Amino acid sequence: xxSDAKDTNALDRMIVREDVLQICYWYQGEGFGDRFNPQSVxxxxxxxxxxxxxxxAELAEDGTLTREGDFYRFxxxxxxxxxxxxxxxxxxxxxxxxxxxxxxCCDGDEVCDHEHHHH
Length: 119
Prior knowledge:
Blueprint: H1 2-29, H2 38-41, H3 49-61, E1 65-68, E2 71-74, H4 76-116
Antiparallel strand pairs: 1-2
Helix pairs in contact: 1-3, 1-4
């Protein structure tokens, strides 16, 4: 039994890490600020405060977040990683509202890239 609980815990922890990263990314994107702490993201998470606190500390240890006093902010690599997760999770969700504008931007860029090759 003990090992089951531990496995579940590891999986839960991974999910919490992804949730925390996505919320931090969203939080920053919404203009709430580029520094977060467990208190600032708790309203958006369905997790224990203690777990969120631990997870943020772990993310800072592995270099995804950078600690600044009582707050955390993204490292450049961490923000990129969170952005990928965020867009993967929210793509379906955003298709209805922002689908056409996202596609427009991407297509524009790609067309430009292809045109450069003619020179």
